[in-house]
Amino acid sequence: MGREAVCSVRFGRQTSDGKALLETEEILFRGDFRLKIPFSGIQSVRVVQGRLVVKTKDGTASFALGAEAAKWAERILNPKSVLDKLGVKAGMVISVLGAADPKLARDAKARSATVSAGRLARDSDLVFLFAESVSKLGRLKSARAAMRPNGGIWVIWPKGRPALGGDQVRSAAKSAGLVDVKVVSYSPTHTGLKLVIRVADRGWV
Questions:
Q1: CATH classification of 3-77 is 2.130.10.150, yes or no?
Q2: Sheet of strand 34-38, all strands in order from the earlier edge strand to the far edge
Q3: E runs forming strands in the chain
């Protein structure tokens, strides 16, 4: 989950009160002016008397965050790995379906997870469904049946495709008896949405 704060921000000669959001790969600010600062474009980060000072090629932004400034700086300087963002832990049973990123399986195995590539393993803790089209979402029902009641399904799809986006994934999830609980930027080119079984429905799965 990202962090958010209502704060004052200085950027160049501009100053505004508004809402700052610390996402997994960028800082956003919405006030009298707007900022979007990708981590990849940050040149330096420091904390000065309760202010988070972020330098980029376009200028320096100063966020009045108080005690939270140090925590934000830590998150920016030491971002979570992809596996951490996805909740992959040692000992998990993981199924990977579709045109998958091979690095995901390698890294998960290196973390001592059991990985089933190309087929659904029974009692999976996590299922990763890489979907290149809406038709691939039809595998959600079988994925739901294969995973543990308290497990999760990550649907990973390419960014920027009008025919396949969050709305289509949520619609298919609803039909499969699933709800979405978390979204992440899986990579610069792909988005991930985590789906789970409703708590009220887990007893009979």
A1: no
A2: 34-38, 26-30, 14-22, 3-11, 59-64, 51-56, 42-48
A3: 3-11, 14-22, 26-30, 34-38, 42-48, 51-56, 59-64, 93-98, 114-117, 124-130, 147-158, 178-185, 190-197
Residue pLDDT, tens place only, 116-167? 999 999 999 999 999 999 999 999 999 999 999 999 999 999 998 889 999 9
What's the length of the chain? 205
What the block records as the tokens of 113 is 């997870």
Alpha-carbon gap, residue 32 to 155, rounded angstroms: 36
* CATH code linked to domain 82-204: 3.40.50.150
| Confidence bin at 2 (pLDDT 50/70/90) | low
